[in-house]
């Protein structure tokens, strides 16, 4: 078997792996990006495309900071990718809203946002709870059933597919090696010395990053890591293109740069089933039409489901192996939102050889049973 | 560019293609009417504005999108003509009916 040496191996060619690989290559590390192929679950191809802050990290201020940090990194990442590749990622960050369809929902959301702001501490978090009448002036065609919205200036959206393509193009443009149809077969791990067999070649490097989505659950233990991730299914409906009408995205409805309306997003425990289900599709459509009644006139042209990569507590897992220094893992369900921090903050830490102390709360050790004193 | 096949058809119906009267065989599709009317393009794409005419004629390619009897973005090849039907080009993305 042929053998090749690299500075870093990244396992997983989706948004998380590609953002990290791009960041590593940009730091000057000769990086190999291994991509299993279209037999994988391909969460990045099914992503909704929000760059979203206002629903993330209650009870986990470190996650709130990480998400906000990514929204801050996004404009420079998008500009840099455009510059290097000519590919626009369709990034718009005009702020965003979460729509509440009843007084009760609005009240609960108000409590939620207030708690999120308290937990933000010195970072601060600007938001407003906007009642229905005022919200209807802000968002054209907002339905009469809408009780109100929560708004923050941090939210936005982008095209997951253009982002993925831009990251891959930028990565290979910098000399990074992309290897498709390369499922990791055998592997060995020793401190700062890893080898994986993939696509008929044995690859060695002093660093390995596991970013294989749901595949991380099986891969991580082989490198002295743990990634107890499970699938959470989300379904999405897509309408025909319409003239731009929505000035900003909402938690479950966004209008793409090309004009399509994307409607989401269910949260289902369906195992590894990538199917769709009429009852869920009906719920998604009904909520969208209650929010914006004019959506009812638009034809649906596509629908799909994808599997989120979820840890037991819904938060990302970033970890480094204690047993085999040089091995890292990254797991999250927000490959678009977090692309900014993955490329611009996480990759430099991995290149430097260790995660910063601020990353400690993201360790998978948080799931270990604690020993009684 | 396009003409009807030479077989004798029992009847024709009159439709309006982009406002102009056009006679087409009974049972034909609105996309056939668009082709027979000889328009240089029956739609412009929403993103780049590229001109298009009906292509696959079997409901797959969406290049025949037209405004039919006031309804935007209909697949004209999937719609059978009726007398007096108004078939108009689809220029760019449709409007969403925001009140």
UniProtKB/TrEMBL annotation, chain A:
Ranges where the FAD dependent oxidoreductase domain occurs: 7-347
Q: Which GO terms describe its molecular function?
A: oxidoreductase activity
Among the entry's GO cellular component annotations, what is one? cytoplasm
Q: Which domain of life is it from?
A: Bacteria
Instruction: Name the UniProt key words of this record, in alphabetical order.
Output: Oxidoreductase
Q: Which Gene3D superfamilies match?
A: D-Amino Acid Oxidase, subunit A, domain 2, FAD/NAD(P)-binding domain
Q: Which InterPro entries match?
A: FAD-dep_OxRdtase, FAD/NAD-bd_sf
Q: Does the keyword Oxidoreductase apply?
A: yes
PANTHER family from the entry?
Answer: FAD-DEPENDENT OXIDOREDUCTASE DOMAIN-CONTAINING PROTEIN 1, SARCOSINE DEHYDROGENASE-RELATED
What is the name listed in the Swiss-Prot or TrEMBL entry for this protein? FAD-dependent oxidoreductase
Q: Which organism is it from?
A: Teichococcus aestuarii
User: What is the organism lineage in this UniProt record?
Assistant: Bacteria, Pseudomonadati, Pseudomonadota, Alphaproteobacteria, Acetobacterales
TrEMBL record, chain B:
What are the entry keywords? Oxidoreductase
* Protein name, per record: Sarcosine oxidase subunit alpha
- Pfam families for this protein: Fer2_4
GO molecular function (one): oxidoreductase activity
Keyword check for Oxidoreductase, yes or no: yes
Family annotation (InterPro entries): 2Fe-2S-bd_N, 2Fe-2S_ferredoxin-like_sf
Gene3D superfamilies from the entry?
2Fe-2S iron-sulphur cluster binding domain, sarcosine oxidase, alpha subunit, N-terminal domain
